[in-house]
Amino acid sequence: MLGSVDVPEDKPMTCQVDRNPPFDKGELAEEMVRQTLDAIENGTGGEFSFTVGNCDRSIGARLSGEIAKRHGNQGMADKPLKLSLTGSAGQSFGVWNAGGLEMRLEGDANDYVGKGMTGGKLTIRPPAGSSFVTHETSIIGNTCLYGATGGTLYAAGRAGERLGVRNSGANVVVEGTGDHCCEYMTGGLVTVLGRAGHNFGAGMTGGFAYVLDLERSFVDRYNHELVDIHRIDNEAMEPYQSHLLSVLEDYVAETGSAWGQELIDDFYDYSGRFWLVKPKAASLDTLLASTHGSPE
Predict the structure, then answer these.
(1) What is the pTM of this model?
(2) What would the pLDDT profile of 84-97 be if each residue is shown by its tens digit?
(3) Under CATH, to which class is 44-290 assigned?
(4) Which part of the chain is the Glutamate synthase alpha subunit C-terminal domain (predicted)?
(5) Which of 181, 295, 167, 280 is CA-nearest to residue 228?
């Protein structure tokens, strides 16, 4: 018989357990709930500190669930939980992040940061004293903000591939991306302060992006089918220059990025190197208002 295998008689012929025990038992997530539950139930918010490791996955999901169960997705946005974290977060940091949860990570994070996030804020910056150049170094992984509907992500470093896939309302600032950024994006704002990979904006029908193009090669990297690109260093695009500057200022205030500060200090030199990327069907006259482009 094709594909037949002889199994020794003393070996089991069927699965002997209901399921494999998870390697990550969610211990840190449950400890976070224990320490913050009173602040969630009372809607008072507060500040807390934790250390994370790369085996701690989906950090923030339990807290977002507790917030949403009691207050809805945005019910604690005015009095958020503010978590200061250190370490390397495992996959899906900030997944389904609710309004009312703000997590500031000093370290780095794996794939799927902010997947499905609906509100709040995620800030990721290098550890204090790091010597690497942020816009040349990865700090978050692949497929971040997949399917996000709201909230803000600031990452003082490069992202991997497929940043913002199916994003419909979140705002993000990173210092570089891999391929397929903004794929199938329908809303929100993506700001890339460095080199972007190939196939940028494939299937993008909403939202918009700012991309810094120091190498003058972005025209060969974006997907021409549904999006077009515009320079912002002219009088007609002055509202976008002002908006981009405010995005940079908020980003630097949150991350302390030296590269972001350099872009601010020499903004009118660097502004001529930025492209605005938008769907072909979208009007420049209404783009800012229609996409809620201003970060939280």
Answers:
(1) 0.91
(2) 999 999 999 999 99
(3) mainly beta
(4) 51-237
(5) 280
